[in-house]
Amino acid sequence: MNTINFSWPEGKSGALTSSWDDGVASDRRLVELFNKKGLKGSFYLSSAHIGKTEAQSGWKDYVTAEEMPTLYQGHEVGSHTVHHPYLWKLPLEAARWEMVEDRRKLEEIMGCPIRGFVFPFGRGIGNIHLSTLARDCGFRYARLSTAAEGFELPGDFLSWHVTTHCRGKTDELWKKFVAHHHTDKLFYMWGHSYEFDDHQAWDSIETFAEMAAATPGIWHATNRDIYAYVSAWRSLVCSVDMTSFSNTGGKTVWFTCKDKLYSIAPGETLRVA
Fold first, then answer.
1. Cα–Cα distance, 97 to 83 (Å, whole number)
2. Are strands 237-238 and 244-246 parallel, antiparallel or unpaired?
3. How does pLDDT run across 64-78, given as a tens digit for each residue?
4. Three-class SS of residue 158?
5. Residue 244: is it exposed, middle or buried by C-beta count within 10 angstroms (0-12/13-18/19+)?
6. Is-above-0.90 flag for pTM?
7. How confident is the model at residue 18, as a pLDDT?
8. Residue 3's closest CA among 165, 262, 249, 241?
9. Helix-strand-coil percent breakdown of the chain, rounded to 5?
10. Has residue 5 got a pLDDT over 80?
11. Average pLDDT score over residue span 191-203
């Protein structure tokens, strides 16, 4: 019987994704850096804060609704609730409103469905019901804030752990990631772009971006890209003897069989020797 192994698109050796919370004005500099280096980011915004100045918010300047479609083009916008509350402290219906209303407002601004979510302040201890609530509100993947320092794909995309925080052991972990031999390895960084302002640390993310961009064989992807690709892989239909495969997902999927790389497009059936 054949054995097939997961591969990232075009047989790439690993994938890098990142997410950035709150939608503050320093996202502009981060997006500019990512565009220059070919990296991708998912940016999670709370709609009540969009367009506020530092004087209005009492904290930071935020991006405006008018600039968002152009600013985040080629990246991803996701939901972070309307007001950024501790969701586990709210009645269930209030938490539901925070999720659904933020999604509605962001979809209105961006002109496309929003399927990604980040729990403000993480999800709290326990509170698995919030992941279920996120799914019921139409989200398909939701990020936690706990760093696992690993490179595994999430078993449950609604409880998606990250590899590291942007001011964590990024360089050390990247070297481990590059040396990691698993074909499904994923490096996931998260943070806030304002941290590079607050800690005078733009050189750290610039150095990481340079290093990541120079590493061959890495797929640079948004959270949405990772979710869509892995979901398509997991929905691949296989014959009993593992010689024929049907792609019922929405993305072309790559895999290896007997050291040969194959691709299978959506709706296609493929037979291997």
1. 11
2. antiparallel
3. 999 999 999 999 999
4. helix
5. middle
6. yes
7. 98
8. 241
9. 35, 25, 40
10. yes
11. 98
- Per DSSP, the residues of 68-89 read HHHHTTTSEEEE--SS---GGG
Q: Please name the amino acid found at residue 68.
A: M
Distance from the Cα of residue 53 to its chain's centroid: 27
Helix runs in the chain, H state only: 27-37, 54-57, 68-71, 92-110, 129-136, 170-179, 194-198, 202-214, 223-234
Q: Which domains does the chain have, with CATH numbers?
A: 16-221 (3.20.20.370)
Torsion angle in degrees (nearest 10) through CA of 230, 233, 235, 236: 180
Number of residues written out for the chain: 273
Q: What are phi and psi of 160, to 5 degrees?
A: -85, 115
- C-alpha–C-alpha distance, residues 177 and 111, integer Å: 36
- The three-state secondary structure class of 98 is helix
The DSSP 8-state label assigned to residue 154 in this structure reads: P
* Alpha-carbon separation of residue 77 from 136, 191, 213 (angstroms): 19, 15, 22
User: How far is the C-alpha of 233 from the C-alpha of 6, rounded, in Å?
Assistant: 8
Distance CA 188, CA 150 (A): 9
Question: Which residue type occupies 242?
Answer: M
pLDDT in tens, 106-155: 999 999 999 999 999 999 988 999 999 999 999 999 999 989 999 999 99
